[in-house]
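In this supplementary section we document a worked example of the pipeline. Step one takes a protein sequence of length 124 as its only input; no multiple sequence alignment statistics are reported here. Step two produces a three-dimensional model, which step three serialises into structure tokens for compact storage. The input and output of this example are shown verbatim.
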Amino acid sequence: MTLLLSSGGGVKANDISVQVHELLRLETEHALKRYKQDKAQQGGVVVEASLPQQQPPQLVAIYGQGAHLLAEVRYRQQSLLFKQGHAAAIGRHQADAELRLQRLDSHCGQFVYQQEPLQLCMEH
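The serialised model returned by step three reads:
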């Protein structure tokens, strides 16, 4: 695992979290590919399991106050953290983001999800 250091010399916890998630995803993909290759070499049939329907993003929480708001969104079995004024989730690049923040207030977030507007609000 690579640890990233901030300009202050500390480890950025979010960077580590993103790297761990990415490493786990890559490891799983690699293991599945290896399994399929082994089965094919043994003459076995690999049955593709249908993946569950992709769940839409869910707003978990909004933290902070005033101009310093953060939104935690559950998407693709991951928790993404969005900061007011930034379109991409923290630790993500906007170019590859399917989910982008447009506006955030203390109750709701306006997002763009798969090229469509999406409003997520806290339940009362």
